[in-house]
Design goal:
- A 4-stranded parallel β-sheet has the order 2-1-3-4.
- It contains 10 helices and 4 strands, in the order H-H-E-H-H-H-E-H-E-H-H-E-H-H.
- The two termini are 24 Å apart.
- The radius of gyration is 16 Å and the shape is globular.
- 35% of the residues are buried.
- The site of iron/sulfur cluster (SF4) has 14 residues, from helix 6.
């Protein structure tokens, strides 16, 4: 099903809003949601969007929320999310209802849109502030998807190739814990046409890994 199912139709637990009570993960999520470290540097009040659970085994790490996600408060409620779910082989309900799937971008707040189009880069501060504590509260993680060039450069450091295409093409170098993906944005439709090996080779591997996680 596509994203015409409103996020508001999901209950608070499915939206990831409902505290589960007292764990390290609950504490770090509460602190992230209260974070205003970038106040004054963003063109709007920060609204951190993160959605992970103690059961999370598949972590999707994009670069930062876009405008529509900033408004919905729920990750990937946009056409990029529809394409990502297609790559994963999961439908809209499963994506939000199955707590084995989590989403924590490199930065949790929408950075704003540049005058020439495209969003500003994610603020580096966010990962430095929050990532180690958040990851240490997710002991069941098996696979992290690095979605887009920013998150790959940030997470892989010197292990990233010289560009996003080469990093994605070298996916075997990072398996089995990490899988780099292109961003599923419509802006990458031409890239997908030009690089059919991605959907021929990597998407089937990704779907199998996701199916294994969701059936065990
Ligand atoms: S982007 Fe990250 S560091 Fe900045 S206000 Fe949002 S949660 Fe805090």
């Amino acid at each position: 099903m596509s994203s015409d199912v409103s996020p508001k139709s999901l209950g608070p637990r499915l939206r990831g809003d409902e505290p589960e009570g007292g764990s390290d993960l609950d504490d770090v999520l509460a602190d992230i949601r209260a974070c205003r470290a970038c106040l004054g540097e963003l063109p709007h009040t920060p609204r951190p969007v993160v959605r992970v659970f103690s059961e999370t085994r598949l972590l999707i790490c994009g670069q930062a929320p876009g405008r529509r996600v900033h408004e919905s408060g729920l990750p990937f409620t946009d056409p990029s999310g529809d394409r990502l779910r297609q790559w994963l082989g999961v439908d809209y309900e499963t994506f939000y209802a199955d707590h084995r799937i989590g989403v924590a971008a490199q930065a949790f707040c929408y950075p704003g849109t540049a005058p020439k189009g495209g969003d500003y880069p994610p603020p580096r501060r966010c990962a430095e502030l929050w990532r180690p504590r958040l990851i240490s509260a997710l002991p069941r993680m098996e696979l992290t998807l690095l979605v887009g060039g920013y998150s790959q450069i940030w997470a892989l450091g010197e292990k990233a190739k010289s560009n996003m295409t080469d990093t994605v093409r070298s996916w075997r170098d990072y398996a089995p814990d990490i899988l780099p993906l292109p961003h599923p944005s419509w802006r990458n439709t031409a890239w997908l046409r030009k690089n059919p090996w991605f959907e021929d080779e990597i998407v089937p591997y990704l779907r199998q890994r996701v199916a294994d996680i969701l059936t065990s």
